[in-house]
Design goal:
The complex is a heterodimer of chains A (112) and B (120).
Chain A (H helix, E strand, L loop, with lengths): L8 E4 L5 E6 L11 E6 L6 E4 L13 E6 L2 E6 L8 E8 L7 E3 L3 E5 L1
Parallel strand pairs in A: 1-9
Antiparallel strand pairs in A: 2-6, 3-4, 3-7, 5-6, 7-8, 7-9
Chain B lengths: L2 E5 L3 E2 L5 E8 L8 E6 L5 E7 L6 E3 L7 E6 L4 E6 L8 E9 L5 E5 L3 E5 L2
Parallel strand pairs in B: 2-11
Antiparallel strand pairs in B: 1-3, 3-8, 4-5, 4-9, 5-6, 7-8, 9-10, 9-11
The chains are: A mainly beta (112), B mainly beta (120).
């Protein structure tokens, strides 16, 4: 099963906004509003940042927002801070495999 | 507070077996589906297996199907992953995670991971 497609890296300066993309198909991202985003610092476990396309769990900064258009989901980080430098993974429900979910390959965010 | 604590990772020879455990606390364990997710060194996240809250439904990634078995003991609030016929490409940090959201589509809590190294 192919993974969702994410850019390998995205960078931005402090205070800027950046957008990470996550592209799938009609069997996953395009077909369901069940996209999640995770942040992972080196050597640490992933943390849920966005669920069901645009919902933030309690405690997640409102600088993080999610959206979807067609087969592509997006995570926008506003007011970029040094602490945002991490790997970000998207995930989506899928009707195409028994595990019902797919991961993207991850995007490395660098704060310049 | 939800806590997930994995254990059981080790250095193991190819062809060997290992059982991972994940002790859960801070939530109603029997009501939550659980997943194992792994991450090879320097690589991305990979789904491994899923089990329903009652344990009656399980699924596996093609890469581990027939070799790994997921199970749970709800009386002990513990999740397991029995890993047989281990191969070098099973080397990874293994996380257990609590399933949440609609369609069980997200993981809202993760353990710190346990390292499995398959090498002769």
């Amino acid at each position: 099963q192919s993974a969702l497609t994410q850019p390998a890296s995205v960078s931005g300066s402090p205070g800027q906004s950046i957008t990470l993309s996550c592209t799938g198909t009609s069997s996953d991202v395009g077909g369901y509003n069940y996209v999640s985003w995770y942040r992972q610092y080196p050597g640490k476990a992933p943390k849920l940042m966005i669920y069901e396309v645009s919902n933030r769990p309690s405690g997640v900064s409102n600088r993080f927002s999610g959206s979807k258009s067609g087969h592509t989901a997006s995570l926008t980080i506003s007011g970029l801070q040094a602490e945002d430098e991490a790997d970000y993974y998207c995930s989506s429900y899928t009707s195409s495999n028994a595990l019902y979910v797919l991961f993207g390959g991850g995007t490395k965010v660098t704060v310049l | 507070e939800v806590q997930l604590l994995e254990s059981g990772g080790d250095l193991i020879q190819p062809g060997g077996s290992l059982r991972l455990s994940c002790a859960a606390s801070g939530f109603t364990f029997s009501s939550s589906a659980m997943r194992w997710v792994r991450q090879a060194p320097g690589k991305g996240l990979e789904w491994v297996s899923l089990i329903s809250g009652g344990g009656g439904s399980t699924d596996y990634a093609d890469s581990v199907k027939g070799r790994f078995t997921i199970s749970r003991d709800n009386s002990k609030n513990t999740l397991y992953l029995q890993m047989n016929s281990l191969r070098a490409d099973d080397t990874a940090l293994y996380y257990c995670a609590k399933v949440s959201c609609r369609a069980d589509s997200c993981l809202d809590s993760w353990g710190q991971g346990t390292l499995v190294t398959v090498s002769s």
